Amino acid sequence: MIRHIVAFELDAPDDEARRAHIERMQNVLEALATLDEVESITVRPDLGTADGHWDVVLVSEHRSTAALEAYQVHPRHREAATIAGEFVARRAIVDYEY
Question: Which Gene3D superfamilies match (predicted)?
Answer without folding.
Answer: 3.30.70.100
